[in-house]
Amino acid sequence: MTGSARMPLTSALEALRSVRTDEVVVTVMGAARDWVAGEPHPLDWVYVPSSMGQGTSVGLGIALARSDRQVIVVNGDGSQLMNLGSLVTVTAAGPRNLTIVLCDNGVYEVTGAQATPAAAELRADGRDLDYAEIARACGFSSVHTFDDLAQWRTGVRKVIDEPGPTFVLLRVAGSADAGGPRPPAVRGPDRVSPFRAALSGGD
Amino acid sequence: MFTGDEIARILTKLGVTHVVAVPDSMLGVWEPALRASGDLELIRVCREGEAWGVAAGLYLGGASPVVMIQCTGMFESGDALRNVLYDYRMPLFAIVGYRSFLSQESLPGDTAMKFTEPILKAWGIDYRLIDTPERKGMLAEHYHACRSAEKPGVVLIAEGRA
Questions:
Q1: Helical H runs in chain A?
Q2: Which of A32, A38, B37, B157 makes the best surface tag, with the fewest CB within 10 Å?
Q3: Interface predicted TM-score (ipTM) over 0.95
Q4: Mutant choice from A29, A44, A62 vs B, greatest count of B C-beta within 10 A
Q5: Where are the strands (E) in chain B, listed by range?
Q6: C-alpha to C-alpha distance for B70 and A148, rounded to whole angstroms
Q7: In terms of DSSP H, where are the helices of A43-101?
Q8: Measured between alpha carbons, how far is B19 from B34 in angstroms, rounded to an integer?
């Protein structure tokens, strides 16, 4: 499912970056790889190295600890599949300040674009799973799907500002040679304290 | 071993803000007391790996969480704890139910017994075993020690009927 009609991930992220102000942004896998190409922000949590699937859980924890901060998790579909239950956990906790942006390209891009079990080519019925429907079934009442980059650019600020938890599905293009995310130059342990300090800076 | 009220009182006194948990037959009994506590927030997750991720996020946000899971769930959550405890060196603390520990004579053969402590040792996690009421004080002592050293820690709490 690497169709060219889907929006490029880099463009989708750029649209988010263009409206971002003081929100926490948690990025994983391919999103992290491309997010770090832009200007860094003290409230970026570039979750590399990660435990695959834990991005939504980390974002939930931040959102619950800091209800005064908007938290945006930019997740991948392969990562979400590894922790589908976290969507249930999110809606059980119900943080109004959490937005999950799921970039669905149908593949494990960082390992060479093998199809996920949710992609049509691996499914007995030949149909893609719809993550927006999964999110609704998990209890999200605020759910949005964007197939088109122009619509995403127009709507991104509005969906972030909605009372959450909010689930946003972006259908993005995958690439077989995109590669994986590289850890930031600053090692993981040395990023923890600066991030905590940045997060408490507004107190 | 502990009542729910005891656990809620101890955790509150320690300054814990959130308990991120998956229940088992012992831990689950504590839930009403944890929920009733005005100072603790109980966050129930669907699987134990999530517990480490949520606790990591809470810690990043300035909170003081503890993870509360059974040893079998600790097995499941290995990569998640590896990531937060080692990749990021977060000093998270966990209360882990030690399944069948008190039933070794009456109900032998639980393989969870065979692997719990070797796995904690393999992960290099400093742990204490509370297997008698006289050792209950070790929970607070070990929590304080780990906080002071800014390192992760676990208390194993023996489960089962002796």
A1: 9-19, 29-35, 55-65, 77-81, 85-93, 131-137, 149-161, 188-200
A2: A38
A3: yes
A4: A62
A5: 18-21, 41-44, 65-70, 93-98, 126-130, 153-158
A6: 45
A7: 55-65, 77-81, 85-93
A8: 8
A65 touches chain B (CB under 8 A): yes
pTM of the model: 0.96
- Which residues from B are below 8 Å from A188, CB to CB? 87-89
Contact A53, B82 (CB under 8 A): no
Q: Residue A67 falls within a domain, yes or no?
A: yes
Per-residue pLDDT of B30-89, as tens digits, reads 999 999 999 999 999 999 999 999 999 999 999 999 999 999 999 999 999 999 999 999
- The C-alpha atoms of residue B93 and residue B147 are separated, in whole angstroms, by 9
Strand order in the sheet with B41-44: B41-44, B18-21, B65-70, B93-98, B153-158, B126-130
Domain-located, residue A164: yes
- Chain A residues 71-90 within an 8 A CB cutoff of chain B: 83, 85-86, 88-89
- For A45, the closest chain B residue by CA position comes to B60
